[in-house]
Prior knowledge:
It is built from 23 helices and seven strands. The chain is mainly α. Among the domains are: 143-286, no CATH class; 288-330; 339-587 and 648-674, no CATH class. The chain has a seven-stranded parallel beta sheet with strand order 1-3-2-4-5-7-6, with helices on both faces. The longest helix has 40 residues, at 290-329. The radius of gyration is 37 Å and the shape is elongated. It starts with 35 loop residues before the first helix and ends in an 8-residue tail after the last helix.
Amino acid sequence: MPDNSATGSEHDPSATDSAPDTAQTESGPGRHPGDTSTAHAEAAPAEAAPAEAADTEAAGKKTAGKKTAATKAAGTKTAGEKAAETKAAETKTAGEKTAETNTAGKQTADTNTADTNTAGEKTADADGVKPSKLRRAATAYAHRISFAGLVFGTVFLWLSTTPSLLPRGPLFQGVVSGGAAAVGYCLGVFIAWLIRYMLSRPQRWSSPKRNYWIALGVVSVIGTVVMLYWYSRWQTEIRNLMGVENLSWTAYPIIVVFAVLVCALLMVMGQAWASLVTWLVRQLNKIAPPRVAAVAGLLVVALLTVFILNGVVAKYSMKALNSSFATANDEVRPNTAPPTSGLRSGGPGSLVTWESLGREGRVIVSGGPDVTMLSDFNKQPAMEPIRSFVGLGSGDNLRANAQLAADELVRAGGLKRKVIAVGSTTGSGWLNKVTIDSLEYMYNGDVATVAMQYSYLPSWISFIVDKERARQAGAALFEAVDAKVRELPEADRPKLVVFGESLGSFGAEAAFGTVPTVTARTDGALLSGPTFSNTLWNDATAGRDQGSPQWLPIYNNGRQVRFIAEKKDLARPDAPWDFSRMVYLQHASDPIAWWSPELILREPDWLKEARGRDVIAATHWIPFVTFLQVSADMAVSVDVPDGHGHNYQSAIPYAWSRILQPPGWTDEKTEQLEPRLHRDG
C-alpha cells in the first residue's frame, strides 16, 4: 500500500495526493506571483544599474554610445548576480528558519513543516509564539491525511450500513463500518497515487483549499446521519422477518464510537506499515535505481509481514489458543455424569474413560432420550440407544482414534442395531443433538451413533487452521466403521448413514469423491450448514440444473441429492428420488455457507439471482464491503431463531424421515416430535 507521507521523491510510490507541491516555492517560472522576496530581489538590478553605469563612465571617459550601453549591460549583469546572491542568502536564511511566505509574503514562526507554508497557513499566533508540541504534531499529522482517501473512506462508511444476511448489532456494525472506512481510505490513497504514476507526475498535488475540507466534513456528517436512518429501516425489516428484537436508540452512539476507534486503529497501523516501506525504499535508493528500490522495499516489508504473522504470531497464538481451549475441553458441563450403562462410552466396560471424552463428548454420551421417553413417545417398548465417542487424546493419532471408535462401537453391540450413524463433529467435538435424537425416536432406540473429536478449537478457528484435520478425521472414521460393517453378511448389515453440520459436514464428505459415491456407499446422508469449502456441495451447486438458484439448487433433477431450506423443499423437484438419498440443509441467510474470499471482488450468484426467502431485497453486492459484512455475520450466525442463519433444528427430523423412510413413521409424528428436540440436547 502506498504511503501517504511526504517524501518529495519522484520515484517514491508511497507519496499521496495530500502533500504540497514544494516546487511552487522555488524561483523561476513556477514561483508564486505574490512572492515579495522574489520581487525585491528582482528590483535590485534596477537600483544598482545607474550607480554602476556612472562609475564606469567616470573611470574610462570612453565614448558614450554603445560602450555606455555595454557598460550598463555589464552593470545589469553584475547587479543580477548580486541580486541572485541576495536571493540565495535570503532563501538560505528562510530555509534555516524553515519559515517561508505565502501570497502575502509574511514569515511564520512555525519551523515544523513545509506543507504549512505551501498551503499559506500560519502556525503561530499574532505574537509570534510557537505552537505547542501537541499542536505541531497534530498539524503535521493532519497534513499527511489524504483528501482522496477521506472521500473514498466516507463513501465506504456509508455503504457499510447497507443490509447483508443477518441482523447486525451496534458492536459488529461499528467494527464493519470502521473497517470499511479504513479500506476505502486506503483505496482512495492508492487510486490517487496510481493516477499520478500513470501521468508521470513526480510531485503530489497540493492539498485542496480549506473550503473543500469544510464541504467534505459537512457532507460526511449529513450523509452519515441519512445512512444511519436507512440502516435503522433495513435492520427493522430484517429483524421483523426473522423475529429478532429491534435496536434501541442507544445503538447508534455505540456504532459511531466503535467505527471511529476501529478506523483510527487500522489507519495508524496502515500508516506505520507504509512508513516502514518508505524508510526501506529510501535506504535502498542509495544502492539501487529508484523504481527497483521501491518494488524491492515493498516486497521485503510484505514478506516480512507475512513471516511475522504466520511464523511468529500464528505460532504463539495457536499455542495460546490450544492451551486455553484444552482447559475448556476438560470442563464438565452441568447435568452431565458418567454413564452407568455399558452402551455408552465412558461407562462400564468402555474402551475409553469418561475423563478422556472431552467436554462435548461427555455431553453426547450422557444426553439423549432414555428408554422411558422413547417408549412413551412411540407407545411400545424401546431399546436404549448406543452412543460411542472417542476424545482427542485417546489414541496416538487420528487414524488410531478412528479405529478405537469403531472398536468401541462393536464392543457396545452397534453392529446389531438397525441404523449406524457416523457423525462428523465440529472442531471441539460438537454435534447437533437434534440430528441424533431424531433418529433415536424414529427407530425407537434401535440406533448406534459413533463420533470422534479431532481438535480442541471451536469450529470457526478449526476451519482456518485445522481444516485438513477435519478432512482426515472424517475420512478415517467412516472407513474404520465401514470396514466393520462390511465384515458382516450383506443381509445382516445395518443401515449406514453419515451426518455432520458446519465443519462437520465438510469432514463427512471427505470419504467420498462424488455425490454418487455417497449414495453408493451409504444408505443416506444429512449435511447441514455446509461451508464454502465443501467439495461435493460446491460441485453439485456449480453443476445445478439451469434455472435453479445457487441458494437452493436442483442437481440432476433431484434423483440422488436434494437441497432444502425448510421441510416443503423435500418435495422439490416433483420427480423420482432414488432409494439411497442425500440432503443438504442450508439457509439463504447462512453466512457460513455463503462466505468466501471471492466476495471481495466478485459478485456471487446468490446476489445476482432472486434473493432467498429470508434475505431482504435491499441486499446487494458491494466490493470489499460485502466481504466485511458477511464476515461479521458469521460471528452471530447462530444467534438467530431456528430456520435462519446457521441455526438448524425443525427441518432435520423431516429430512431424516425422507432419507430413511422409517416403517410406520409419518409427518404427524414428526410434528409431535419437534417440541422434544433441542439443538444442544
